[in-house]
Amino acid sequence: MEREIDQTAVHTIELLEARLRRIEHAVIGGHGMEDGAGLKSTQAPATQRITDLERMLHELAAKSRVVQDLLSLHANHPDLFQSIGAAELPTTLDSSSLLSIVLASASAYPTTASRLTSISDLPIPAASLSAQLVELQPRVAKIEALQMDQAADMAELRMRTAAVLQRWYAVDVLGAGDSWAELEDRVDWVEQRVRQVALTKDIDKNMV
User: Fold this and answer.
1) What is the pLDDT of residues 141-170, one digit of tens each?
2) Domain boundary among 61, 81, 101
3) pLDDT, tens only, 87-126
4) Which of 80, 135, 173, 200 has its CA 20 to 30 A from that of 58?
């Protein structure tokens, strides 16, 4: 009898280890329990293996926020993780409250049923159509590649056009503006010189 209890305990620990490995793989996709940093050998004492299980569970919870949330949810609402029989209601509401909830959603049941019926009534496409679509796949892939190349060419053209416009604005527009400004400055200087010369002549005439 004692040997059977020991075998049951060992088998239970092995199942726990396997479930913990699957949980770790599903959560973080790692294989840390299979290397030296994971669980101990199956020849280790049961107490040591249980301690290792607890340690690995804490490490997994530290690595994953999802596991932390699940553990917190289990601690605060353990009844959510308990199996409920088919005859038991998974709620603490009374019958009148449940009836009001069902009646509030009653109008959606016929609509959902009709949609499901319409989906089931949809004919299955012929195999020849599917074969034609499969045959068209290489051509579709080539067209997509051509579109991507055209999009890249258009992007390059837009960049070159923007560069040309920038150069035209900088050289022609701004350059012409600078030239006109310089020309106006020179005209102003010439006008000032002409007025000075004319004023000097007038002064000389008056002195004579």
Assistant:
1) 899 999 999 999 999 999 999 989 888 888
2) 81
3) 665 566 677 887 888 888 888 888 888 888 887 777 777 7
4) 80
For residue range 8-25, list pLDDT tens digits in order.
766 777 777 787 777 777
User: What ranges in the chain are assigned the alpha helix state H?
Assistant: 2-28, 46-63, 65-76, 95-104, 108-121, 127-168, 174-207
Domain match, 72 and 145 both: no
Residue 6 contacts residue 39 (beta carbons within 8 Å): no
The boundaries of the domain holding residue 23 are 2-81
* Residue 171 domain-assigned (yes or no): yes
**Amino acid occupying residue 69:** D
Count of domains for the chain? 2
Rounded to a whole number of angstroms, the distance between the first and last alpha carbons of the chain is 149
